[in-house]
Write a structure and sequence with these properties.
homodimer, about 230 residues, alpha+beta, NADH Oxidase, four-stranded antiparallel β-sheet, 9 helices, globular
Chain lengths: ~230, ~230
Amino acid sequence: MSHSDEGARSAARRVLYDLVAARRDVRAEFSGEPVGADALHRVLAAGHAAPSVGNTMPWDFVVVRDPARLRAFAEHVAGCRADFAAALPPERAETFRTIRVEGIRESGTGIVVTYDPARGGRHVLGRRTVDDTGLFSAVLAIQNMWLAATAEGLGMGWVSFYEEEFLARFVGAAPPVRPIAWLCLGPVTALQEVPDLVRHGWRERRPLADAVHAEVLGGELEQDPAGR
Amino acid sequence: MSHSDEGARSAARRVLYDLVAARRDVRAEFSGEPVGADALHRVLAAGHAAPSVGNTMPWDFVVVRDPARLRAFAEHVAGCRADFAAALPPERAETFRTIRVEGIRESGTGIVVTYDPARGGRHVLGRRTVDDTGLFSAVLAIQNMWLAATAEGLGMGWVSFYEEEFLARFVGAAPPVRPIAWLCLGPVTALQEVPDLVRHGWRERRPLADAVHAEVLGGELEQDPAGR
């Protein structure tokens, strides 16, 4: 590899890892400004460039911006939030009380991601033994969009306090098509440096070392200096 | 926003979108060189920085490098490939014949991603109504790793021709922990510009416009020039 290749690669790494670290799951920081059409297009295009099993590209993106519909979905989510709160032990309920779970109206733009298992016909290359790989493809698209939003100076927040049947009807998704996410997208005043759930004392981060294993779960990964 | 902010953002966008476009699902291009320990660490750290429902970080990464084990997994995959081929209509079988589905031994490094639904206890914030959101979190980590690998000048390939029970035993994952992916990671001679399945005539890409909808599936997205 030439020096200039190494320089370009080092710059690319820095940009990517900065984006990965800066990306937040946004609820409270949406500024209320609209998302520009060009930025929206680039975010969707990044999602659409994700890998997919058998090149099925089994996702669709439904952009929801009608204020009355945003309000209707936010009301549904508020109900699901209340159900969750009611099931918590008192101490957890107290911690949860201060945590926002959505910025549906404030973001002004929802992107509902749907998954269509019928895309690709009967013989999907790579989905024979693990049917979920189709579903997984649509999730890969979401992470591309999340990093794209961060690069655009936008915030994205994944709302999961909803009944899947409600959201399916809401976007006109008939079985076997499944809605798998509601993503809030919008300009933000700033991104938090510490994730909300850490900041509010809900749950600490897990150290990377605990998540990495060699050969089998629990196997210790030897760092080989010669392999660096 | 100041001009310098806009300049930095524009550079970040360019780098990210170049990575998103350059990323390939690699099978045939692994060079056989080992992955450096620092690069491996950064790729895993990028995965570990993914968002997760309730901040559960429900993934684990099992790094497999023992040549005998790589060979054993490759043999299992060869069997699953043969089963898929046998079920295809003759014309599709002929197209499939030329397509590689794995670079397990050539990459020299496998990363098995597992998902632990028990992480986070009984009350996972955001997983009450849609249980799959836990599984989705682990998939988001994979796309972070995929882009990180691309930035590192490495190739990554997701192998899905395996029986989940086989892979669970292989890495010592006992229920409810599920292996969800085998990722080949290694230096590459180059990344293909056109995805393998397009290049080999298996399946064309779908236009972005077909995947984008307004308000409901099938609703046409109006491009608002004023909103740009």
